[in-house]
Each structure stands twice: as C-alpha cells, then as structure tokens.
Amino acid sequence: MTLYLDSEDISFVSVEYFKSVALPPLREPIDISKIKDSLQRDPAIWKRGTGRWFAFKNKLWGSGTSEEKAFKPLSDIFDAVIREASKVSDAPVKLRFASRPVVSPATERTDATYSDAYLLLVDKKSVDTQGGKKIQAKHSDSGSWDDIVVSFEFKMSEGDAEGEDKRVIQSLHHIMYSDPCRRATFGITTEDAQMKFWFTCRAATLVSKPFDFFMEPEHLIYFCCCLAFANVHELGWDPTIRSVCVGGETQYDITVCTDEGKNLVYQTTKVISAFSAKALRGNGTRVFEARLKSQDGKLVKDAELVVLKDTWRDCDLDREDKILEQIFADLRAKQGINQEAEARKYFLTVLAAGNVMVDGKIDGTDSLLCMTDLPADCTSYPLKPTRTGDLPSLPPLPSPAKRSTVLHRTHSRLVFKEVCQPIYEVRSLDLVFETLQDARKALQFMHCVNWVHRDVNVANVLCAGSTGKLADLEYAKCMDSTTSHRHDVSKETPDFVACEVEAQKYLFIPPTRWSWLHEHSMPSFRFNPLHDMESLVWIPTWTLFYHVGQEHSSPSVDQIRWFHILFPGYSRLGAFVGSFDPWVLPPSFHRAAYEVYDMHQALLIAYTESEKEMLPAQEPAYTEPLAQLNSILSECIASAVEYSRGVCLFSPRAVLTS
C-alpha cells in the first residue's frame, strides 16, 4: 500500500481550536481545572520543585533511555487523570493505555506498522478470526488496529526530522484504510516535552500547534477526559457496521437505512474495491459483495449476491441513485421509453439506497468535525511530500488543493443488483474492449440528454458477465443546470482526467483565434462530453501500457518509459497531442494498440474541430465532432475486440507507478 503525504492535506491549527472542533464534548460535571489542581497537589503525581509530572523523573531528550521506557509514564498520567475524572463522572471509561507492543497490533493486512503507544477501547470491536470471538487478551499490549482510538509517536532526539509525524500519519491512514467501521481517528506526537494532537476524517486532517505538556498539562488532561468518557460513535466508530467472523475471515454486517425507513442488514462476502479509501481525505468509497440478512439475524435463504457501496459524497452533491433516476427521466422525456429501457442495460440497477444514520441524524463529517471555516491563522502543516510503502498497481490519489474551508461529506450507502468486476481486473483483452464499448454507449446515452459523467476511470467502468456498466455517478451533472458545485470534477484518479480539465482551460483553440479571443473575451472553461470521451480513451491506453503479455514477465525498458510519459500523474498534454509507439508493447497487443492510437487521433481532431471557431462566452461547438468521434470509436473498439481474441493480460513483475 502506498501513502502519499502532502502538507496541503494537513491543517495546522491552535490547540484551543483543535479542542473546540475535533474532540467529543467534555462530559459534565468534569472540571479540567479542578482535576489539574488535584493532581498537582498530589506529590505522587506532580513534582512541585521541578514543575513536571512525577512519572517523568528525568529529562526526555538525551536521557539515553528507549522511547518505550521514556514515555511509559504517560500510562501513569492517563490513569491518574481518569481516576480523578471518575470521581465526578458516572459514565464508564471507554479507553485504556497500552505501551509500545513487542509485536505490531493484529491486522489482516500485510503492511502494518508500529506505534509507540495507543489508547485502546476497553470493550473491543475486533474479532478473533481464529475462533470467531472477541479477542480476550484484554491487557495484551499488541491489541488490534481495529480497537485503537489514539496512536502515539515519540521523538527522543533531534535527529529524524518529521519522523514521528510521518509515522503517526501512517498509523492514522492504516486505521482509516483497513477498517470499514472507522469514520475518524486520533493521534498524539511528542518531541521532547512538546506535544501535538492529531485528528483525521474523510473531510480533513488537523494537527495542533505544539504545547509543553509539563507547563500546560491542562491540554493533555482535556484530551484524555474528552475521549475516555465519549460514546463510541464520537470516537470515530460507525455503529451501523459490525465486524463478524465468517469461516475464519473478518466480514461485516452493514445496515442500509433506506429513504422509506427500512433498515436492511447485509453481510459482506468479500471486498470488491477499496481503492478510494486509500486517501485520508476523499470519498472513502468501499464496494462489497454481500447477501441480505433476515430480521432474525440469519442470511436469507437463497438470497442473491448483491453489491453494497459505502461512500462519503460531497455534501452539496446528489446521491448516485437520485442522479441516475434524473438521467433516466430525461431520456424518457426526450428519447422515449424504449431508449430509456435500452440505456438501463449499461448502468447498475439500484435495489436500495439511503443515507447512513448515526445517533438519530444523517451521518456526515460535520458530526465529527464541528466547523466549516478554518481559522484565519490556519496554515498547511510543514511536512515534506513523501511516498512510502509498495508501489501501487493503479495511479495514485492526488492531494487536494489547500482551502480556507472544510468541504464536508455525507455518508451514504447503495445496494446494486449486478455483481461486477472493475475493468482493471479483467484479464481477457477482448473482454476489456467489449466492456469499453458498452461504457461508450452509456456515455452516449448520457450525452444525448446533456448529462456528463465527469469521473470516468478504470474503477467505475465495470464488467457484468458479457455486459459493460458505467457506475459512480456522484459527479455527474446536467449541462443545462446552472447549479454551481464546489467541485467541478473528481480528480481522485488523475491519470484518467482529460488534459483540458486538469488545466481548466481550452487547449485546442488555433493561435490566430486565441489572439482574437484574448483581445475580446476569453470563454470560461466548462466540462463538456469530449472530456468524458478522453477519459474513456485513456482506459485502454493504460490497460495496454501497464500490463504484459506473459505471466511472470516484466515490461521492457521502452514500455516502462512510455508508461511514465503517458501517465506521469500530472500534466501530460505533450504526450496526448504527440504519438505513442505501439511497438514497445508485447507483440500480442500490437494490433489492438494501433486501434487505440487511432482513437487518440480521432479525439484530437474532435477537440480541434470543436474549438476552431470559438466565440466569447460560448462553449466549444462539440455536437457534430462528438457524433463523428462516437462513430470512429465504435469502429476502433469493435476492431480491437476482434484483434484481441485469446489475448491475456498479466500484471508485471515490476509494478509500474505514475
């Protein structure tokens, strides 16, 4: 797994601001100042002469002791704070402190990491896949990642700059990626006596400015009290997902609350896709194969397998099922019921849909992070962008641009009838092109009623038996709409974003026309159907240049070079308008690659034709070029299908990354 760290993802805020927006509310009648005074009067807790916690008998930096020994006293401090708070609070204590384990916390993933210490749930959520019961080793320091509320990282010397910050981010990321039950999580880093608080959810990652936890112990006391007595959903868990052990493997019972008020419970059988959950900030989409359960908790007999999608959409966007019905309604009104019925073949069938309900309210990141506007003194945390871990088999998720506001997200679930395979997992090249042809038809239906998809990529072009489907319509928009959204398009898969969309300007206006427009008025950029078509064309391009033609083989040096030219993870206009070399590909790919090359050329012609006579305040004249492009792509894809019969795709031994 790869984690892309970028300072623009992390908001650097004051301690007071962090406490006010990222922590659960402090339970009454807990009084932080009284707890602080009581602890500082206790000589077993506080050393008055030195002004430090008694448990820390020596200075930290340069002490020569290990991180484990130097910071183990935090356990004594946590216990002392909770003892004092428990004197006035009737709420049960939810957390316990665990020092650095001798082994990594239990996880089913192979890319686990260590943290120096944890705050763990007392009532564990994790399941023992060996016996199907909750892990009973209640005081085992190793615990499970599925039970960690707060991850600690300690820095003992001046070396290893940023090391503890990157390690805690890795822990936060691991929790959010590996555990579908998690909505948010927390962290603490220390550098000598300087401490920082961390928080992440699908909308934002916050880190507090450092404070001296000897000189200002009230901040640490507040942090511990807010979390230790909070409800489990306030600690970041989703009460509508429950981990269960099925056949020695972890599965999930997931509740779908429909708009009609029904609570349908589905038990997963496998994860189909969790690619979008790799980003700390984003839609966190996970797709499961699942079966319906009855009210008595048992699987419905002979229940068909379905697909369950769990996602965090932008709060100002409609839910996918609502968008899909709007598209079908427009098709019915403009093209007739027969065309609507034909179009439905190329989209998923929605069986159930609804927003996730937590604590009686629609679940969203605004229930975890109580703010919208970032403070005026908020800056991006000064952390150097870094890649860690294994190279991904798909293009990386980019870091969104720094904003002055938090873009909140709404948590929703959909259940689809068709169990599909994403096109990037298809291993027969002819089936890839057959699936692509049907995705093209889906786009053609959308475009004919003035809808654009705006997020076509290898994860949402799906293969359902012999039929291709187009999914993930959260970003789809009617071009007749005047509604403005915060996000023009999704850019979570940059290698499939059209060049003009990335640049946010028209790139194929002739120089003479450009000069004339510059003198008058440049047209405002707007997404149009040609951009969807470009995203579609990048899919077979990626498929051919990523894969190899024989099992256990590696791509040639030239194939790797061209892959990086075509998929650099950022602007690749030069590669798009230029020509690629099909001869660097495995011989079995050559004839299909020439068809893809022709698709690129046809797309360039369509762009040029649509923009050659641009006028101020007008969008490109794409209607006729789009019709011609559809005709050419249909022929090219059909030819590629025939040329690809019997050709298999294999993942390369040396994994490529953008």
List the main descriptive attributes of the protein structure presented here.
16 helices; elongated; alpha+beta; 7-stranded antiparallel sheet; 30% helix; disordered N terminus; 9-stranded mixed sheet; 658 residues
Describe this structure in words.
The chain is elongated, with a radius of gyration of 27 Å. Helix 12 runs antiparallel to helix 15. Strands 2, 5, 6, 9, 10, 11, 12, 13 and 22 form a 9-stranded mixed β-sheet that branches. The protein has 658 residues and is of the alpha+beta class. It is built from 16 helices and 29 strands. The model is unreliable at 1-7, 132-140 and 385-402 (pLDDT under 50). The longest helix is centred in the C-terminal third of the chain and has 22 residues, at 590-611.
